[in-house]
Here is the input.
Amino acid sequence: EVQLVESGGGLVQPGGSLRLSCAASGFTFSDYNMNWVRQAPGKGLEWVSHISGSSNNILYGDSVKGRFTISRDNAKNSLYLQMNSLRDEDTAVYYCARDRPRGYAFDYWGQGALVAVSS
Amino acid sequence: QSALTQPASVSGSPGQSITISCTGTSSDVGGYNYVSWYQQHPGKAPQLMIYAVTNRPSGVSNRFSGSKSGNTASLTISGLQAEDEADYYCNSYTSSNTWVFGGGTKLTVL
Here is the structure.
């Protein structure tokens, strides 16, 4: 059974940093591209970042480019999101999501981790 | 990249059919057959319902179907059931090598 479990969320002050983790199980992690998608309270979904299975293709949404860094450790079956220079508008539930085998859609999602940016 | 345009809400009675539209541009919806649809119940993670415009993942009811014409994609739910009440989001790959979601549509089953 495919499982994605996020951790590392919490309350952080504006300008601060936080690192999210996503532990994957039930599939060969290195074979799949992965993504982070976020959802602000009461709002819609926003794609944040994408990383290929071998980490040779990394993409970011405009709202986080230059502040967030996606990475993965295939030996540990883990996906990460390093978030720096956090802003109030980064407050959201952050989901890790797996790409379908042929990509371009997100077939499994974690339960989400809440990141709250507030002073 | 602007969000794709979806109606804020749609409603239907049990047994009826409803359609949710998702309008983009030639740089996203119209340019690629990479439109997907997600169902999200309150407090839950999204679930993939349709991928590559018309394809259903294993386990998704055949009451759900997708289509596309030009820059507009559509999700149709036939034989509406109470359990279909949820938020629905479309998503498309874009020419900027990014992905963009629609603003979401709240489906109410009357």
Notes: DSSP finds no helices and nine strands in chain B. The radius of gyration of chain B is 13 Å.
